Amino acid sequence: MSDEEEPVPGNKPLRLPKKAAKVKNKAPAQLQITAEQLLREAKERELELIPLPPRTKITDPDELAEFQRRKRKEFEDGIRKNRMQIANWIKYGKWEESIGEIQRSRSVFERALDVDHRSITIWLQYAEMEMRYGNFS
């Protein structure tokens, strides 16, 4: 086998060119595109492709319990993937607070502090939550 051939599993050897093709026109293009434009266009296309999830209508307590269980699992999975991502902890704690589960919210913030006890963001969010519910101890 020569230097320009590489074996490809299940196929014939792949033949690579000896030299890269030469660029004929090295002059800059008339219209220059910046990295910012490329990123903006990519973001716009991403938004076009991903449809928003349908709004969930909850009609009974069983559906509510199932929805809350699913959301908690999503938050826990996100935390498990990256424990040091403070934003995940904050979102989880605020979500628990928003559904009226103050004890669970407190637990989430305390677990977050076990991970990073120096995070000012966690301390502030935790303290604000406690102040909203009148627990100053």
TrEMBL record:
Which Pfam families does the entry mention?
HAT_Syf1_CNRKL1_N
Q: Which residues form the Pre-mRNA-splicing factor Syf1-like N-terminal HAT-repeats domain?
A: 74-131
Query: Can you list the GO cellular component terms from the UniProt entry?
Result: post-mRNA release spliceosomal complex; precatalytic spliceosome; Prp19 complex; U2-type catalytic step 2 spliceosome
Q: Does the keyword DNA damage apply?
A: no
Task: Tell where it localizes.
Answer: Nucleus
> What broad class describes the main subcellular location of this protein?
nucleus
Give me the ranges of the annotated region Disordered: 1-27
User: Could you tell me the keywords of this UniProt record?
Assistant: mRNA processing, mRNA splicing, Nucleus, Repeat, Spliceosome
Q: Which PANTHER family match?
A: CROOKED NECK-LIKE PROTEIN 1 (PTHR11246:SF3), PRE-MRNA SPLICING FACTOR (PTHR11246)
Q: Which family does it belong to?
A: Belongs to the crooked-neck family.
Quote the protein name from its UniProt record: HAT repeat protein
**Which species is this record about?**
Oesophagostomum dentatum
